[in-house]
Amino acid sequence: MKKILFSVLILIFGIHYSQTYYSQDFNTGGLNGWVSTDIDGDGKQWFYGSASNIYPNLGSGSMASYSKQALTPNNLITSPLIDLSAVTASNAYLIYNLATDSNKPNEKYSVYVTTTNASGAITASTPVYTETVAAGGVQSRVINVSSFIGQQVYISFRHYDCTNQYYLILDNIRVKSLADYDVSLKNVSLSRYGLTNTDYFIKATVKNNGAQTINNITLNWNDGADHSAVIALPTPLAPDDEKIIMHSVAVNYSSLVEKNINVSVTGVNGFPDSTPADNTLSVLFNTVSQNSPKKVVIEEGTGTWCGYCPRGAVAMHNAENSFPNDFIGIAVHNNDPMTLAEYNTGANFNSFPGMNVDRSLLRQGVSSDFSEFISARKSLIVPVALNATSSLAGRILTFNASAVFRTNFANASLRFAAVVIEDEVKGTTSGYNQANYYAGSTTSMGGYESKPNPVPAADMVYDHVGRMLLGGYAGQAGSIPSTLTDGQIVNYTFTADVPTAYNLDKIKVALLLLDGTTGEIVNAAGPFAINTTLGVHAAEKTNNEHMLYPNPAKDYFKIDGKGKADIKIFDVSGRTILEKENAEPNTPISVHNFVKGTYLVSIKEKDAEPVIKKLIIK
Which residues are CB-contacts of 111 (< 8 A; sequence separation ≥ 6)? Predict the structure, then answer.
């Protein structure tokens, strides 16, 4: 009965399907047949350009007109001939994106639909739409042009009667008929990993491709059972607009699960969607037996030629001071002597300075403060705890990666990768001069405001420099098995010859676990030093009078010795994990909350040199 009713509703309400009669996204270069007319003859008119560095959603090309400074435009641009003579649908709409500057958005423009492309006749006609844009950024407009069905027409935009603003950008221009109810599901988000017995909510980005304003959407998620809810929108969703909605039924499991969850739009304002083929997406979700320490990796695109890039260096140092246990920063250099080609290509920054956060948030803008990104991501649930040890034989680096998994995977696509990072890099050639647009600025920028432009190489020290990729940018294929179980330990060893130009005393290594499908960094650890007294390329001290047992340890260990001692436990990056003073010999020391891996134990008896011992926790 339900299937019959659904079919009847489609016949009644879904008889009009979207049909496109003209579409231009300007991504192929040039104005693509649009003709610009400089009405006031000032030499300024509509032009083709790219705004992708400001508005990535606009693609690689757009058309634009300026009104900046004292410029008052009177610029017309007219489309190729658009044939609406054979349209049989009952409606037709002009749909387009516009963008204006966020600080100076008040651009005035009019839209004309005419049967002639003569500029004088166009401007003498009555516009079908006129506005002075009130807010900046990218927006959509939908204009009903149904009265022109049966004709061959030109569409024109006139930018005029405004001054001392900045720009008007137009893109993604379409003329099409719209169904009454047509929603597309653009994106679905859910925490990739979660704790048991904890609520997680699905968010969905929906776009209104129909002619009617939407007040509610029926959203369903299915993990073997349907969970449907009618989501009332707090504000109506206009045609061609997008909105993020949240399902009201939580995802919550009491045990370890690995789920592929399908999310679908099944109704719009109580009616069926006319094109359900674009209404379903899926997300993966795993519960974990316990959470593990999470580090946020920020890879920052920089270059000595980039005058704004000092703010990225300042942000790196600020983050290192503010989030010493939650953050790994790597400077990915471009077109300068510190460039690592594979890293620069893989990171694929489109502006400098730019950054990728956990390779999940890509091509983000860079301020002098990373705290918003780190604070938002450092508490994410992750399915794996990471650790590593390293050793040097001459300049041959051996890096032993270790992972303890806290969930089950039936068909994982995960990979180990590591990045060799060098601090205090210096150079003497002009390529190490740092361009500095903050010279003489009243803006505080970590001291760069007091330095010249450029800063001479002799006065520059570069930190966090990404020097080597172990396993490649995409990680080492085959380093992690596809089937994994809770508590399983996976190890992998990288070896590399460290170039003589790199200072071993300033080298450290960050361990990454990558999602081989999405490329995202699932978790990271380190960076691990290899040159401190606790680093494993320094000889480990031995003393037969001290022995750790049991070793490997699980819940506790003891130290066999003659008398009381001060105990310090370090991870392999040199961070102090635990301290005990005047510990009695053979007294249990609890490690049940420690992440599995390798640690170093310093044992110092009175008036004696410390003894370093290696402890493995399983």
Answer: 94, 127, 128, 129, 130, 143, 155, 156, 157, 158
